[in-house]
Amino acid sequence: MSLSKRDSPFANSGMVVTVEPQDTEPFQKEHGVLAGIAFQKSLETAAKEAGGGGQTAPAQRLTDFMKARESADLPDTSYHPGLNPARIDELLPEWMVRRMHKGLEIFGKRMHGYITSDANMVGFETRTSSPVRIPRDPETLQHPEIKGLYPCGEGAGFAGGIVSAALDGIRCAEASATIPAG
Ligand SMILES: Cc1cc2nc3c(=O)[nH]c(=O)nc-3n(C[C@H](O)[C@H](O)[C@H](O)COP(=O)(O)OP(=O)(O)OC[C@H]3O[C@@H](n4cnc5c(N)ncnc54)[C@H](O)[C@@H]3O)c2cc1C
Hints:
Blueprint (H helix, E strand, L loop, with lengths): L24 H7 L3 H17 L5 E5 H6 L15 E3 L2 H4 L2 H17 L9 E3 L39 H17 L4
Parallel strand pairs: 1-2
Antiparallel strand pairs: 1-3
Helix pairs in contact: 1-2
């Protein structure tokens, strides 16, 4: 997000990390196919507690996140409810922190100055894509049992973002126009 004048000192950018089905294994015994939702909820609850309640969010300086250390204080933020210093690197599962470190190291190599103590790692945006997927036939794009139903886009678990949702929408529209239902 950047204001049209592009004069904001803040880049409200999100870092998206892939969560594979096997990553939700600790939740599968109790929650079955809804393990992803249970995992999502566990992160949201942890963030709420680490934020100190209300809408205050937990945050850590990017350099401290990379070095696995406490942030004594935090730089300015555009997040109006405010931030509370917290160990984001400990709130997140180890595998997720590892993936984020890898990505951030690449960003840091490609964009000089990206890894800075002036950046806040704020937790968590957990709703970039759906943690459940409605089954669909890969050829017809129809639901395997309900003919004429085309599970499509983010809610059905086939997209995570504006462009991928739009593309999936086009695919389903074309499929519904060319492949007869049933
Ligand atoms: C706060 C936020 C910020 C985001 N920022 C970005 C970003 O910067 N870049 C990016 O790529 N993506 C971003 N996304 C994700 C992006 O918005 C979604 O991936 C995308 O909109 C999904 O498109 P969709 O058509 O699959 O679903 P949606 O856009 O969710 O559309 C589903 C539609 O179905 C309607 N609907 C629901 N139930 C019913 C019903 N029973 N009957 C009739 N209609 C119904 C809803 O009202 C809605 O209009 C963001 C999402 C959020 C929430």
